Amino acid sequence: MSINQQQTYSTIVSVNPYRGDYYVGTFNTISKASSPSFSKEQYAISFLNTKGFISTLIGVSKNIPDDDIFDALENKIYEELALDMAVEYQIKFIEAPHRDTEGERFFHVFVVDPLTLDQEYADPIKNIKYIDSIIPVPLLLKSLYTKEIIDSSDIHCFIFFQENDAFFTIYSEQEYVYAKSLKYSLKQMHERFCELLGEQIELIAFENILANEGLSTSVPGYQKNLIRLFGEIFLHISDVITYAKRAYEIKKIDQIYIGTAVGPLIGLDEYAQTYLGLKAVPFDFNYGFTSDEKYVDQIHQLMHLYGRLEASERYDCNFTVFHRPPPFAKRDSGKLIIVTAASLVIALLYPGVYWGLSYIEEFRDAILTKEYEEVHIEKIAREATVNLKMANKNHAQALLNEQKTAYKQKQDTLLQVHEKKVDYPMKAKIMADFTQSLNTYRVQLKTLNYSEENGTKTFMFGLISSTTQDITALLKHLTETKREKYIFNLDLISYDDEEKAYRSELKAVIK
What is the pLDDT of residues 451-464, one digit of tens each? Predict the structure, then answer.
């Protein structure tokens, strides 16, 4: 199994750090690993979902030499994306040759916060010690073209819903063009579905519904709300497609591949094709792997396919910081042990070698002393430069703090003006709405109070009526017609001897 030109491994292990699952592959087989462990004979590969990185298209002058491209891109990225200069972000890039102009070269740039890598891969590193490749998930799709699973050069859109994320990716002429994290992951789908349904079901139950029945579920209430949910999803996707076509000058998208981490959804591709007006097929490819598993996640199969590519067939965009150590003889500790052992053998065989070693050490000490003096002078000069730059930074920070304070004051003023312009008319509209209902059910309004506490807006209506039936009928009407906007509470209806009427207090909380 050839993974790259320098090393050959017997197995590949793929890691999904977001679900905490692993798959092991040998030749053309793949199977789930319940308890993975480190082996120096295995090649470990993982991915970053689209929430884990920032991607953008950056152009630089063609006059910049290849050796200086990274520095030029890095400077533009920090400036255009307003990145924190105090953080050393992981930055990788791949060229976008089809975007080049007469004077500029364009690159797809990927930026990752190093803290993201440390947090997401803390548990996998405990199990398998090293990860050889961490690839942005949209770039894994390149292997579909390299292995000729997709052999056309049309413009393709890939949509895949994962448990914690969902990605939207466009390839044109078998090259990466654009990627975006979509609004609806499987967890977000589950939360919105429960909200539409009006009751809570377990995430695993929701995923089983999608995997086994798709959009054609036999439960009428479920099917109605699933259709509504995916209507919202495809409205969001339609907006993303519109933006991508305009931003990247794409005339049309020839085909959409759509799928989920729980497997193909029955009816999803037909629904996508109907809603988006584009040819859609399932994101479910034949990678040529055999497995005893009922379903193997497409992302795991893509990682195993990508891991079998030669280095020249991949995008050079590896974010791993969890490298395996070099061979023993190339490590500093290994070199030290080897030298020590050889020295001991020589010392035992030839006692006179000690005199030679002593002379060598004295000579080495003299050289190091001279190097130290030179380095010390350079250190002092650099410390002076650092101190000057720190003074300039502090001055700039003081100016920035002043600007932030002025901005906050202006922002607070605008918020107050907005509240007076928007909220006050809104209260009047609410009162007019409730007054109409009160008149309809012959209930008089004696008192009204409005309060806001911890962001909760509450109306308290003091009601009076000649009969309790009018009050209860009013409450039933309000509960049925306005429950989407308010939470109503009416604890007590009492009789007022002086008024010869019934009193109650109705509480309405704005959702």
Answer: 888 878 899 999 99
Measured CA to CA, the distance from residue 132 to residue 318 in angstroms comes to 8
Res 316 pLDDT > 50: yes
Least confident segment among 66-80, 187-201, 389-403: 389-403
Helix (H, G, I), strand (E, B) or coil at 277: coil
The CATH fold of domain 1-149+286-324? Nucleotidyltransferase; domain 5 (3.30.420)
pLDDT digits (tens, 9 = 90+) for 320-368: 999 887 655 555 555 566 566 556 666 666 565 666 777 788 888 888 8
| DSSP class per residue in 130-151 | --SEEEEGGGGGHHHHHTTSS-
- pLDDT mean across residues, the chain: 87
Q: What is the pTM of this model?
A: 0.64
Q: Please tell us whether the domain made up of 150-284 is placed in CATH 3.40.50.1970.
A: no
Alpha-carbon distances, residue 370 vs 234, 340, 358, 374 (angstroms): 70, 26, 19, 7
CB 114 within 8 A of CB 90: yes
In angstroms, rounded to a whole number, what is the distance separating the alpha carbons of residues 338 and 342?
6
pLDDT single digits (tens) 34-86? 888 888 888 999 999 999 999 999 999 999 999 999 999 999 999 998 999 99
Q: What are the residue ranges spanned by the domains of the chain?
A: 1-149+286-324, 150-284, 329-433, 441-510
Instruction: Round to whole Å and give the CA distance between 318 and 458.
Output: 54
Which residues are CB-neighbours of 234 under 8 A, at least 6 positions away?
Answer: 271, 272, 275, 276
What distance lies between CA 202 and its chain's CA centroid?
23
Taking the C-alpha atoms of residue 163 and residue 271, their distance in angstroms, rounded to an integer, is 21
Strand partners, 170: 157, 178
Report residue 497: phi and psi, to 5°: -65, -35
